[in-house]
Design brief:
Blueprint (H helix, E strand, L loop, with lengths): L1 H19 L5 E9 L6 H11 L9 E7 L1 E5 L5 E4 L14 E5 L3 E8 L1
Parallel strand pairs: 1-2
Antiparallel strand pairs: 1-6, 3-4, 3-5
Amino acid sequence: MHELWICQNIFEIVNQQAVKQSCVRVKRVYLEIGQLTMIEKSALTLCFNVVSKGTVAENAVLEIIEIPGSARCDSCQQTVSVSQYYDYCRYCQNFSLTIMQGQELRIKSMEVE
């Protein structure tokens, strides 16, 4: 379950920012996750709740914003939606695509007190 490792890193950043800003409590964390990361969102939420227990982020809501996958075809240069790395171009059926978005994993913002 790589979600636990990911969550520990997310929490470390959240905690560092909370300390830096002298926050009493983290209420909400907005997290952007690309569709192509294959991160299980329910597992990530569960791990976040476990990792944040007893900290300023305990009971914080993890808001997950999913970024859809898209790629540019290396042959016809069209931009296409992709849901996995080995999708093909819907225009020319070429499998040579350059991923443009969908690999993101970043903290967008936090609500704190």
